[in-house]
Amino acid sequence: MSVIGKARRRVDGRAKVTGQTRFADDVALPRMAHCKLLRASVPHARIVRVDTSRAASQPGVYLVLTGDSFPVPYGVLPVSHDEHALCRDKVRFVGDPVAAVIARDEATAAEAVHLIDVEYEPLRTFAGPADSLAHSEPRIHDYGDGGNVHKAVSLQFGDVDAAIAGADHVFDDVFFFEGSTHLPIEQHAAVAVKDPDGKLVVWSSTQTPHYLHRALAKALQMPAAHIRVIATPNGGGFGGKSDPFNHEIVVASAALTLDRPVKICLTREEVFYCHRGRHPVLMRFRTGVNRDGRITGVDLQTLLDGGAYGSYGVASTFYTGALQTVTYEIPSYRFRGARVFTNKPPCGPKRGHGTPQGRFGQEVQLDKIAERLHLDPADLRLKILARPDSLTANYLRIRTIGLGECLRRVVASSGWSGKFRKLPHGRGVGLACSSYLSGAGLPINWNDLPHSGVQLKLDRSGGVTAFCGATEIGQGSDDVLVASIAEVLGVDPFDIRAVTGDTDLTPVDLGSYSSRVTLMMGNAAIEAATRARDLLAKAVARTLEVPVERVSFGERRVFDAEAPERGVTFQEAVCIAEAQFGTIGTTGSYTPPKSAAKFKGGGVGPSPTYSYTAAVVEVEVDPETGWIAVPSVWIAHDIGRSLNPTLVRGQVEGSVYMGLGEALMEEQAFRRLPPRLSQALVHKFPSMLEYKSPTFLEMPDVHTDLVESMDPAGPFGAKEVGQGPLLPIMPAVANAVYDAVGVRIDEVPITPEKIVKALQAKAAGKPPRVGPPAFPDDVPWPETLLVAPPWEGGDGRASNEPAKKSARKADAGVEATAGLRR
Amino acid sequence: MMRLPTFRYRAPRTLAEASAWLAESPDDTMLVAGGTDVLPNMKRRQQVPGTLIALRSLGELSAIATGEAGASSGRHASLRSAAGGTVIGAGVTLATLVRDEHIRTTIPGLCQAAIQVATPHLRNMGTLGGNLCLDTRCTYYDQTYEWRKAIDFCLKKDGTICWVATSSPRCLAVSSTDTAPMLQALGARVRLVSAQGARELSVADLYQNDGMHYLARRRDEILADVTVPDQTGWRSTYWKLRRRGSFDFPVAAVAAAARLDAGGLVEEVRLVAGAVASRPLGAPKAEALLLGQSLTDERIAAAAHAVYDIAKPMDNTDFELVWRKRMITTLATCALREIRGDDMRAARQRLARQLV
Amino acid sequence: MCGDVAAGGKARLTCTVNGEPVEVLVDGYKTLLEMLREDLQLTGTKHGCELGECGACAVLVDGEPVLSCLTLAVECDTRQVTTVEGLASGGALHPLQETFADLGAAQCGYCTPGILVTAKALLDRNSNPTRAEIKEALAGNLCRCTGYLQIVEAVEKASAMRGATTTGATGVSGATGAEELA
């Protein structure tokens, strides 16, 4: 390997350090107008009247739009097309967009927005899941699983009640994971223009140009072929730019109406209202464990505060219960999850999408189990590790597992055995593991099409251009694309030009989410490059008069492997091939393997392969003040194979950073004013100052270790790294706090106040714990789908699923249930 | 992008010109120096001045003068006599203040307070005068117009209710300046200049415990400079609590200055709590407990508890108020131990994450 | 000096941007950030909050790192402004740009311009900063991608490179006790 595995400058590195990377807000066009949105100032209300006349008559105002212009709803999941670009009949949270002003400059638009008069008829404010479960009327949306429950699911794999009843010990714990937001430094921006042919072009800081493309076509009722979406490099995404957004549709509509470019760049406050961040999740884990530490069964319940719209929420709900089984052997499993609507910005996918919450509960509970059974937490985990090449109780296909090796490495590098339960009072270490998808195995819009496509154009100059719909959000997807091709063709990565994230020019890649790009785009790139290589090899073999198998590629040459001096330059090889075969262009595509899960809901969780991570976190906790500091983190990640170690390390350290933020300080918090005085429910502090994210000074030393399990499913053996390493950080911090001062904080963020409260409880002889008291008993669970695990002769189907019904609903149902079943 | 409202911008060439303009300017005129407080407030429409009078280029406000002639080179000679003390122009940036060798060595507490303000960039811009006049802060107030509209505004701006405590007759916004508690503890005085002349106030008298009317400065006055009395024999220190080692305003703070005799007995002492009321709070009971005493652990604990007693944090900053109040004890203890001569560097590093 | 600009009016100012004299007519309400990005098309300077809470818009004014979002454009008359576009010279990247690109210090690249100019000011003032001094100097720049560590390493390496090119073999010295705190 000449490229793969080498620590290299990323191909887009120069652009990023010279300020030349063109982000969406850097796009400026002649005659460009500017858009500002009027957002709801009430959390839940019927819109009685919108009067735009004062705004429309302002000098410099070109256009004022309201919900009347946007009759067609859209949404990222086909089952939740519940958004309109501008609200039509009601508003559902403070920040919901109601009207838009397009004007000659942003200042004029911003002033005119205040001249729009909106009359509201207030409705009950739903501030949290308790409200939404207690009151089924008024409904925030008129769809879902009844009242203000958006989605409720119940799945059972084996006789979990008997398994838990028969266990030596039963652990029953309730945990809470607070919501948090992505906080990319770049605020969302979009520019739309009608191109000279009359077609629509939209530049946007989106992670998913393909989904935006679909949403624009639907919401604007335009042929998709007349819309071009260009995903500009994202200034950070983390999942927050994965939905099609109202502002993108508004500027597109305005540009078409005005026939001039229209730009919008959100303020930081508005980014908090876009949100789609981590769901606050309350969860209860009932786990049966035998004396030796083996788990007999897990019964998990989760309750998600979804906010005001669907977003990815149905998938998020399933994800809270999907990946528990891929790290440890769980022979029987029941998962019940419910997502409720509330009058807050919608939650969605943030790094780890739905899985960090459940992972937190599971890993903290394991720490409690290890203590009760007098087992070392690392030994316990090693004993119960899931097996490679196996099928889990919920029909997830596990390929390679480097988790055991990850555990052994962090135990060694951190000096675990000399520290755990041995450090002086106030200092402690905690350990946790995790796993994450290397791409969702099923598409959101259910179809049999590839998830990623790559086209290559080989030029007579020896240049190679790679086209792919993947989106560069900082993770280095352009570098993966180019490096994979360079490796196969024996050229330098900088010889290749990447054209990405442009729906006119590039084949579809579903987007930069679910850690899917390296695996899926990488495999598609290898296929395209191999096809090009085969053409060149065939042509050069004839010229060199050697068998085609002897033709080798490297150092920008194509040569006889047995006589390397005999050969041609790569450029000559392209010319020879073009002379023989005509214009040289190839394609590659990737479609994940079929899932083994056939039950409804089994579409969430399957992946071509899973990454694994183990982490040890050391903390210092002041027993007087609860003040908490993290001096060091040791983390080992099963990357499958490291394509560019510089970028892989960056993803691991960035994950540790974001995980520490969630563990210690980040909170998407809200204020409900006293109900006797006000209906108000507002984001507590939609600002970068008060939403606390760690600075240079809070970042600990991180000792990163990469485990290469060489997964056959991955490109060159690679798995994901963008999300998995975040997951163990929060539970490892909680476990370390317990090791340091002997109190359990069963929720995040873990703050000094909570530590002091727990220490006070401990001193008073009460349970030394801060966390949620109980899981509510009024969640309306649906009938449980019963699926026999593989080892009980199951075939991946639910024994009680009404198969007819799903077939009958097929037409509408392709849209209605897509992505979540197969 | 958030944008400023329109305003008239005027840049006077002298302090006299500035005060003359200010005297004749309409009521909606504001002063701007570093801009790091006023401009964000303007962008959020908390303050919408029709005119900004810019103090940035007034050389008269940007000097540091010391009583001992020749103690530091390059100082502005035209300032009033410092009478053994140090006169710091209100326009001196916090970064300049922190880098000043004389201040670092003779007024370490002021250096500690200034270096913990905001971020390096903001200290390059923000001035000492600006930090002293810093608008009081509140999580119900430091929000955009749209956000504040969603709570039907608040007492401090455009509304009628203080949401921090809905029965409160006055605004409970928090004094969030780091330098004011320290300068109050140092016994510093400020000079306010207007077209009518100049007057001096102690820093303690500059502030009022009212989130809206927190300054005794008249609207036609310009804070020109601060005089810190001769620090010979004095020790000073500043302890600040905030979530992160950078960016954040204080959520609790304790400034301490004391003069000890050769035997370690406290001859004079001033303790001031910051960010737990609408003004820096002096702690006379705590001071009385220490006068004439040696700083034993027990005395320190008693004094720290007396500072705790006066702190009145409300639920309008980061962190929970009960814990913030509790932390006043810790901060006061750390400050007094440092005054005693304990090596507090490790504790400071842990709490404040000050690395250098 | 722009002494008096009417509300809603414009100011004509002359300043030096990245070493080149610039004359610009700018709205009186605009900040340096808006002037750079909108009036001078220097979009390398980014913005993440426009309230002084993130550091993305940092530029150098007269060599000092400041936030362009809180600097009035009219107050930049006669001053020297350096943005990320001004770091490279003579066709060669600044050592910091080289090391940031090589060592993964730029992921999405959005906070990078602000961090680069801030780090440049640090190295101009202190050619051989300790790790603690680097973290302190950059404590006003938020980054959500990297976890900061590769940024610190890139500044260290650039410092070593510059030391090697400007002072020959004098090598690295001057580490203080603060190093251990970092």
Supply the key terms.
A: 822 residues; alpha+beta; globular; disordered C terminus; B: 356 residues; 4-stranded antiparallel β-sheet; 14 helices; 12 strands; 18% strand
Number of E-state strands of chain C: 6
DSSP, total strands of chain A: 34
Number of helices of chain A: 21
Largest sheet of chain C: 5 strands, mixed
Based on secondary structure, the structural category of chain C is alpha+beta
Distance between the termini of chain A: 38 Å
Any low-confidence stretches of chain A, pLDDT <50, length ≥5? 806-822
Kindly estimate the percentage of residues of chain A that lie in beta strands according to DSSP.
Answer: 15-25%
Give unreliable regions of chain C as ranges.
167-182
Report on this model:
The complex is a heterotrimer of chains A (822), B (356) and C (182). Chain A has 822 residues and is an alpha+beta fold. Chain A is built from 21 helices and 34 strands. In chain A, the strands form nine sheets. In chain A, strands 3-5-1-12-9-10-11 form a seven-stranded mixed β-sheet. In chain A, strands 32-8-13-14-15-7-34 form a seven-stranded mixed β-sheet. Chain A starts with 12 loop residues before the first helix and ends in a 6-residue tail after the last helix. With 356 residues, chain B is of the alpha+beta class. Chain B has 14 helices and twelve strands. Chain B has helices at residues 15-24, 38-43, 94-99, 101-106, 108-115, 120-125, 128-132, 145-150, 179-185, 203-206, 284-290, 297-310, 321-340, 345-352, and strands at residues 8-10, 29-32, 51-54, 64-66, 86-89, 189-194, 197-202, 222-228, 234-241, 252-260, 266-274, 281-282. Chain B starts with 7 loop residues before the first strand and ends with a helix. Mean pLDDT of chain B is 95; it is low at 69-79. Chain C is built from six helices and six strands. Chain C has helices at 32-39, 95-102, 112-125, 131-137, 149-166, 178-181; strands at residues 4-5, 10-17, 20-27, 58-61, 64-67, 80-82. In chain C, strands 3-2-6-4-5 form a five-stranded mixed β-sheet, with helices on both faces. In chain C, a hairpin with a 2-residue loop joins strand 2 (10-17) and strand 3. In chain C, helix 2 crosses helix 5 (149-166). Chain C is globular. The N and C termini of chain C lie far apart (43 Å). In chain C, 63% of the residues are buried. Classes of the chains: A alpha+beta (822), B alpha+beta (356), C alpha+beta (182). Chains in contact: A-B, A-C, B-C. The B-C interface holds B 1-13, 32, 34-36, 39-40, 43-44, 50-51, 54, 56-57, 95, 118-122, 124-125, 245-247, 349, 354-356 and C 1-8, 11, 28-31, 33-34, 47, 49-53, 55, 58, 64-67, 70-72, 74-75, 118, 130, 132-133, 135-140, 178, 181-182. Strand 1 of chain B pairs antiparallel with strand 1 (4-5) of chain C, so a sheet runs across the interface.
